[in-house]
Design brief:
The structure is a homotetramer.
Chain A lengths: L17 H9 L14 H14 L4 E5 L2 H12 L4 E6 L3 H4 L4 H6 L2 E5 L8 H4 L13 E8 L10 H13 L3 E6 L2 H8 L14 E5 L9 E5 L2 H4 L2 H7 L8 H10 L4 H21 L5 E2 L7 E7 L2 H6 L5 E4 L10 E7 L6 H15 L1
Parallel strand pairs in A: 2-3, 2-4, 4-5, 5-6
Antiparallel strand pairs in A: 1-7, 6-7, 8-9, 9-11, 10-11
Helix pairs in contact in A: 1-11, 2-11, 8-12, 12-14
Chain lengths: 354, 354, 354, 354
């Protein structure tokens, strides 16, 4: 079976890192209590790893994917008549085919954002709805860390949003599909920009950084987590052979595996950015802070590059001044991206623009 | 990490069969189009396998688990004001924490059944509601094959239900979480008791028979499947690294792997049944047709057995006449159950009842 | 326009009592704050009446109909993964086309009941599900007062259910579509069998007893009512010209109008029951305690009676021994039923059975 | 009971017009088949009136209010994974507390609009999502006629939207909460700007123009309406004493009552607009086409006027250049607004700005 060539389409085009594949094999022996029930030890070991990284007062639940982590985590702590405030670009708004609306029943209130980040002042106008029975009541602010535009919130920025949320009787949710890339970008442990700065619920992702499947909902307040096991089961997200999710995360959070994988991806993005900066007809359009590089390039270049390297066009008609038609493309680096991959790609660009 | 001993708790307490683990490793190379999009070849290969087994006029979609396959498959072809008619014991009714009610919005109309099976006459009384605007409109009959009581529908019985459904403008859904065990029990290919006898939508399971994760919604009419990809995404069931589900099913449906695994489980259940039949104080309470054995045993025996072998009590107070307190327990065999497992378990019983 | 003759079909076939029609006309002057917002005085007056009848620690909300009162009242205090336990015959289970499942997302757990009433022992088996993540968690017991079978709970019976509910961390809901008939039957004020015996949320009905439209959700604990205004609006149940609902209830709860109307209905049912008891081929099949009379009659009698008086057949094939085919019919009396209506109907029966 | 003074807050602050109140009284005699079931003649008469006005190939259903008409009408013809495209200002987007999201499960895609109207070019960008499984699929365009900004679509504009929708496999919904005001503004019958120009489903309102309660869902294609009675019942919108809704609409559509009421409201808005145009510090900010007048006025004027006349502030900080703080207010005229009301209000303004 032919496998398509490596490229820059998305960090979920890559496979499973060898350490995780080994773990899946190692854990595959004998019988284990299904659904993580009882005192099933594989899950307990994973929970302990999470407590090591995030502190003791958390509750951790495994689900299948990031959409589910967002929808069930947020949906567990707001009511259908409340609202989610988030950036227009957020995955929870743009890329979940309405799962939040369907499953939570809530409205999403969008904030326009060019770099994928939001600040308290962006949320302010929506608070006028508070107490007005005809409007959904803003109840949670959701941010993505790393954002969908490849940018990274500082702990100070997150703290400001958390304080703002809490002082307005709201919660702060973080979509951490690429949280390891953020931690590496910030040079911090996870706790510094989650537990320590007021995040209430987190979607902790691993699939984009070398895992096979599974995502984690982390509540930073056990009270908020109450009865989440029923939410998860009703949400069709309770895995029977739970050990195969749990063990991945135990391994992921051991021996800095998460950090090594994310470091490769981030480093390769930095290298890619640096190389592209040297090519005059290309322009990096977002600050490169993690593993994504957004690039404005001549439109005619795109199909030629895509013959050898797959990647997604982000905007067909970016709003910029140019003599020639331009497109904005998104180039994602992964745990398995190599210097050779970058060099090959950049060489091809150079050849084509010559 | 200590793994609990093997037992008879459920077929999802077992691990992943070696062939599948090998496949997961083999497929883990290079980059592959995420979400099964484009002409991603790993998924295409799996679709082809399903067409080989079920015929050409089907549509196949991967989801994460059986609850999702049931809820999304049924939910795609009925409306919220319609109803699902099923046996009281059905997984879709009893064991999904209300996922059908929450996600489809429909009412489930229960039929009492001692052996887990239903017949058209059981459905008949519910049809009185047709046309009465205050009642949910019966629209789909759902059966489990193998049933939750370990029994197996014959193709004739399924055909009768399908004909009845279709002549009343209804559909027939099959929850095939243990469909391979049913095929082995019947000595038939899958097609003979699905495609050929009028099933409209099928949840095709593998996790209980040696897979790691993933389940399949199979529509036997492409029109019914229209737009299911959006239903799946909104239903939080679209996996990004899709190859790791697809490849499992390609392997499962090759070289009779599904049949070999299920044969072991069924054979071991037969052996277990035969041995238990020889012990006078125990009584097999359901006809053993696949891989589950339901047994009435003295209540005091249960905790003693559970010290060494885990299994679930099905009924704490079964409705039978007996001089001593009795319990009904469920003993499930799996692809990895061995003759030694059976012998050890039976020997222990014999020792305890002596 | 021809209006069909008076009959015994349902208490909502009757019109609006003269006092209420007068009130609607009286209140129809000038402009009034829409949606009951601000300090709109018509609604405030109605709230005060409810406090007079039910005590000070209640919260009162107007909705359009009984289905909405049940669904929104119950739905506000339970989660989608929790369950409603109720009699099989309950309106919330049988006659709302799945509105509870659709809007709350919960499962309804049915109790078989011949007289429409339930007791704590009926609920007990469902509590086995508590803590088991695969099952909806029982959270509310719902009773109808008057029941759909025309029977009435005593305060002691309600108290027993409330105590049982509360000691199991559950709530008690009362569907009071015919609560005035119950109060008259018991010879008590409303408070004695609601507030005083532990009801948590009540659907207070009036339409079946002389009102035009509107129903009331009464919470007996202000904390439970928190934010209900958003639930109502999102539930499509917020009326703009609210004064026309509020004023009806103010009038209904003044000068014993509710009691006078219900007394007529109940008295007429008693008279009807007494007359039918005298006819040997007919048999009253439920204890007549309020305004409904269930009667077993020869099947051939039904169409002949329906030529002149409309009423509903309750069971086409009641489970009784009889030499001739029998049907069970339901005869409802209303605030506008007269002795002449009863006499005419009974005379016709007598003529037909002679 | 003191009734607040007449004002310009909203057309649902007014009461019921005398003709409708008389109708409610006239229809209140004897027993009538509940729920509009059977061949209940009051409803049949109303259906006939609608066919007279909209043509024969329609289906008509009564619900309680406009939110329900929008949500159930749209929700009946789209799926949860499809999307509604509408103006940001639309009631279905802004003022239903998320009822569409909760009950339909769909996402609403907003178009910014200064005058409340949209055109096909506004919808175009959303069609890029078609076929992309991660995005809700645009399926219905919803417009308000009259818009929430007091503007009116011409039949040509509606036709353009309908053609655009249909050529893209979408539907066109019209929220006609103020449809009579639109008809009067256009000088046309209803059919000319609905049936004749491709509207698929209409929310036909009356409460804002003299009715007590009730709204109508009109389908312009009987196939689309199939099974809507179950949707309505499950949607908690089936009235038992249906005659009291049906009769209102029969009367409303007879003897030009709808037209007379709407003409008063529109004429008074025109007069109000003309008077305000004469006052230099005030500025009418939207074209006045029906019964609403949007006015920019000095902020300090607002509380002084509200001491005698209630009205709503639309924008606390309108985006205009001004030396003094300004607010934008909304002044609604109703079927009961008189020339004296206008004169009194304008006189007060003149006195205050002198």
């Amino acid at each position: 079976m032919e496998i398509v060539k490596k490229g820059f389409a998305s960090d979920n085009w890559s496979g499973v890192c060898p350490e995780i594949m080994q773990t899946l094999s190692d854990i595959n022996t004998g019988h284990v209590f299904a659904y993580g029930e009882g005192d099933e030890e594989v899950s307990q070991a994973a929970y302990k790893k999470f407590r090591n990284h995030f502190g003791r007062n958390i509750k951790t639940y495994f689900v299948y994917n990031g959409t589910a982590a967002n929808v069930l985590g947020v949906g567990h702590i707001i009511k259908s008549y409340e609202a989610i405030v988030t950036a227009h670009t957020a995955h929870i708004n743009e890329d979940e085919c309405g799962a939040p609306e369907k499953f939570i029943g809530s409205k999403i209130l969008e904030i326009n954002s060019t770099n994928g980040k939001i600040v308290p002042d962006d949320v302010e106008p929506f608070l006028n709805s508070i107490g007005f029975q005809h409007h959904n009541q803003p109840k949670i602010i959701s941010i993505s860390q790393v954002t969908e535009m490849g940018t990274v919130y500082t702990p100070q920025e997150i703290l400001a949003l958390a304080n703002y949320a809490h002082s307005n009787n709201m919660y702060l949710h973080m979509d951490g599909a690429r949280i390891s890339n953020a931690a590496v970008a910030l040079g911090m442990d996870f706790k510094s920009f989650t537990t320590d700065v007021g995040v209430d619920v987190l979607s902790f992702g691993g699939t984009k950084n070398g895992l096979m499947f599974g995502e984690v909902v982390v509540f930073f307040n056990k009270q908020l987590a109450l009865d989440f096991e029923y939410r998860r089961k009703q949400g069709m997200q309770l895995h029977s052979k739970m050990r195969f999710i749990a063990a991945q995360f135990t391994r992921y959070l051991s021996d800095d595996l998460w950090k090594m994988n994310a470091s490769v991806a981030n480093d390769m993005a930095m290298k890619l950015c640096a190389e592209i900066d040297k090519i005059s007809v290309l322009k990096v359009s977002q600050k490169v802070e993690a593993n994504g590089v957004f690039v404005l390039m001549p439109a005619e270049l795109v199909p030629k590059l895509q013959e050898k390297y797959f990647f997604h066009v982000w905007k067909e008609s970016p709003d910029i001044e140019s003599d020639i038609p331009m497109k904005e493309v998104r180039l994602m680096c992964s745990w398995d991206t190599t210097e050779d991959d970058i060099d090959g790609f950049v060489d091809l660009i150079k050849k084509l623009v010559d």
